Amino acid sequence: MVQSSSTSSSIIVSMVSSSLLSVKHAIPIIMGANIGTSVTNTIVALMQAGDRNEFRRAFAGATVHDFFNWLSVFVLLPIEVASQYLFYLTSVIVDSFQLESGENAPELLKVITDPFTKLIIQLDKSVISAIATGDESAKNKTLVKVWCKTKTSVTALNMSIPASENCTSSDLCWTSENMTWTVKNLSDTQY
């Protein structure tokens, strides 16, 4: 018996891809796996029964997860039984890729998530490789290469100053009427 919906879903997807199971039959099985995994988080929440406050938080989180799973099945299963909406939708999506047997599957999630992931965090792959090969010096290095990428832009602005002594450079300073002007760089960091 498998209590993980991820494991069950992976097995079902493998069975569909090898034509052991049809997509039409796999849809309710996947929904059942989502309901079945509700047992796991409830058991974990019950393990926190020793501490009343911790139990409340754990059970509340498990209940929210359960409601999400149950509501999605209560809404989608009748629609699927009545109209086979999910079956036809997935068929249209798969057919739009025009895949041939033996071709590599398109990396859909990677295309969508990579630009955003690189803006948030980048890992140093050389450190990962060094740790994997057993390099002792790599154990104390950080895996994070870039955290929340920033972009700094510098703009040259004309600014009025009190007197010519405050000029940033004699070449970049001029007087117009009774005002003295200079060029100053203004840095702006965008996160």
TrEMBL record:
InterPro entries in the record: Na/Pi_transpt
Localization in the cell: Apical cell membrane
Protein name: Sodium-dependent phosphate transport protein 2B
Transmembrane segments: 25-46, 67-88
Keyword Ion transport attributed: yes
Keyword Cell membrane among record annotations: yes
GO CC annotations on file: apical plasma membrane; brush border; vesicle
